[in-house]
Amino acid sequence: MSQDHHNNPAAVDAPNTEQHHLTQDTTERSGAATARHDLGYDRAHQWRHATRELVLTAASALAAADEPQAQNSISITLTGNALSNDLLLAESGNIVLASPRDHSHPPTHPMRVLPMRLDTLSELPAIRVLGHDLTEPIRLRLVVELTARNPHTAATAVMTCQYDSIPLDAQTPLAVLDFQLQHRESHF
Length: 188
Hints:
The protein contains two helices and nine strands; from the N terminus they run ααβββββββββ. It is α+β, with helices and mostly antiparallel strands. Strands 8-5-2-3-4-1-6-7-9 form a nine-stranded antiparallel β-sheet, with no helix packed on it. The longest helix has 42 residues. The N terminus is likely disordered.
């Protein structure tokens, strides 16, 4: 033992105290990461439960910007992950943005769909919104609606996700959002 220990036992414990704080900080951060992981797992589990045996058959998007410029447009893709593979589920093509003031109800745009069982996804589907020719910042209102059918019972479910204020601009033209299931309507 060092001479410091005999004269001042706290001198030996000082590095241990620092180590304790580092370990506690690391534990707290890993706990936060675990909580985020658990939340993601819970959402994915709820998604699989809500979409059990449902096959995606149709999708549509409604998009409007507060102050769109004449040349503003977006494209929307819906992707999912199954067996560690990223999959394209639906895509909109190019959508010219309208202002909510231009129409009482902005037009709904059908999306091209690749049919697949939604409960095979390992996480929530992702909505990717890409702005084209953005010269000024915009705030986008977006509603994505998915229609899925159970091939065994012919039951149909309509699932809706809405975002009211998605910021897009020339420096950040891409927004990636989880498809948060906000409304589900079943038809038998």
